[in-house]
Amino acid sequence: MxxxxxxxxxxxxxxxxxxVVQDNIDKLTSRGCHFVGPQTGELACKRDDIGRLSSIDDIxxxxxxxxxxxxxxxxxxxxxxGPTIEEIDPVRFISNHSSGKMGYAIARSAKRYGANVTLVSxxxxxxxxxxxxxxxxxxxxxxxxxxxxxxxxxxxLIMAAACADFTVExxxxxxxxxxxxxxxxxxxxxxxxxxxxxxxxxxGKIIIGFAAESGNLTENALKKLREKRLDxxxxxxxxxxxxxxxxxxxxxxxxxxxxxxVHYDVMTKDALAEKIIQKVVKLLGEK
Length: 287
Ligand code: CTP
What we know:
The chain is α/β, with parallel strands linked by helices. The protein contains eight helices and 18 strands. The protein starts with 5 loop residues before the first strand and ends with a helix. The protein has two domains: about 5-65, no CATH class; about 75-285, 3-Layer(aba) Sandwich (Rossmann fold). It has helices at about 15, 20-30, 55-65, 100-110, 140-150, 195-200, 215-225, 270-285; strands at about 5, 35, 40, 50, 75-80, 85, 95, 115-120, 135, 155-160, 165-170, 190, 205-215, 230-235, 250, 250-255, 260-265, 265-270. Bound molecules: cytidine-5'-triphosphate.
């Protein structure tokens, strides 16, 4: 073959499951052809089964995967993403606007570079990335437990999650009734700063953080970089409409461990994820 070949099969489930088709898929795979899908879902005959063409996103991802040099083969990368939820009572909670898109893009990118990727995700409305081990954590405390137990097996931690900084002091098992009250006070207490805790003993690991700021971006990000002993920090101004929550773009400043500051133009979260992973590849190469 002169160029890599990717096949995205789409057919009725009976045809797909037929031994001859399966043998031919095995034969093509052994000759170096790549496959994406098919997916399970409603088929032309209305049956819900395997045979649907993969989504365009999955096909594009498979193409990018094939075309990316596997510079992270053998490396284990842990990524966190999304918000956390801190419950007040059985119906109410505190959370934030994080969509998880940035962390999920980083997980996909690391996987494309050949890493074994584990994603710890808060509650989000997007699908887990293909080929990535995804675990879910609802609260900041759960996220801390997951990161703490998974980190020893990883070479890199990228904390893209927007963990809650505060949780309720006392969860109410009963729904808090409004009764005749005009005001209500909910006492909050600090959650664990996961990055700060785990970077106390870095043990040669590369640890990367984010900084969501609404002012004094560089100054605040530098403070976080130092306090959390990061290899680099990716800071964004959340008041910039091109860098806010839920959208597909970001505008960032990246500060390295030598406090070198680089401002970037607006780019897609996918492009930023790739940039972050390329920096990780470089750092691992320097170790
Ligand atoms: N982070 C963390 N544990 C927390 C809160 C945040 O590990 N409990 C991580 C985030 O994942 C991010 C970095 O710390 O990588 C910075 O998060 P950010 O919300 O920007 O700042 P904070 O450190 O929480 O400080 P502040 O809210 O005062 O800006």
